[in-house]
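ZP: hey, is the adenosine-2'-monophosphate complex queued? I don't see it on the tracker
AM: it wasn't, my bad. submitting now with these inputs:
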Amino acid sequence: MRLFLAVSLPQPVCAALDTTMDELRRRGVSGSFTRRENLHLTLAFLGETDRVKCLTELLSRLKAAPFEMTIQGLGQFSDTWWAGAAPNPQLQELVYRLRSELSAAGFPVDSRRFCAHITLARRVRAVQGAFPAFAPLTFTVDRITLMHSHRVDGLLTYTPVWEQTLIGPQNLTKKK
Ligand code: 2AM
């Protein structure tokens, strides 16, 4: 199964980003917009693997406390547009530790610098113009989700298969 680790977003954050996507469409931006229920921040992409038990054990061992993060501003990688995160040492540290643990367990990890983003649209065709501004969105990251990426009735769908609650220094695990 195609898996990745993500920060799931609280409903108010998804709603605000949905409004931003509406605003982009209103300004003439077209492309493949992320469905509201698919909005997430990827911590680590795992690709095709069936090692779910190994991953859940790895997450269970992770000692990390909840932390606040802020989504602010839009950015782009080529024709992919995203909402970015404000500089966040705790998020960077979490990804660094995840990558170390994943690598030690034999998973291929991304060696590029982590750029925290929430993809809003792919294959964007845009008219000239500034990105719309939106008020910063702050929320608490208190869990990591192991997500299954698959098609349901032809629709790209992300289904949580495990949630790891962050309650450092000790961890609590919870099966979905
Ligand atoms: P993206 O939003 O930048 O496209 C599920 O596909 C998630 O995993 C998406 O958030 C996607 O990031 C990320 N992803 C998909 N393929 C990837 C890859 N080869 N390397 C890193 N991240 C990937």
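AM: back. The CA atoms of residues 92 and 113 lie 10 Å apart.
ZP: great, adding it to the tracker
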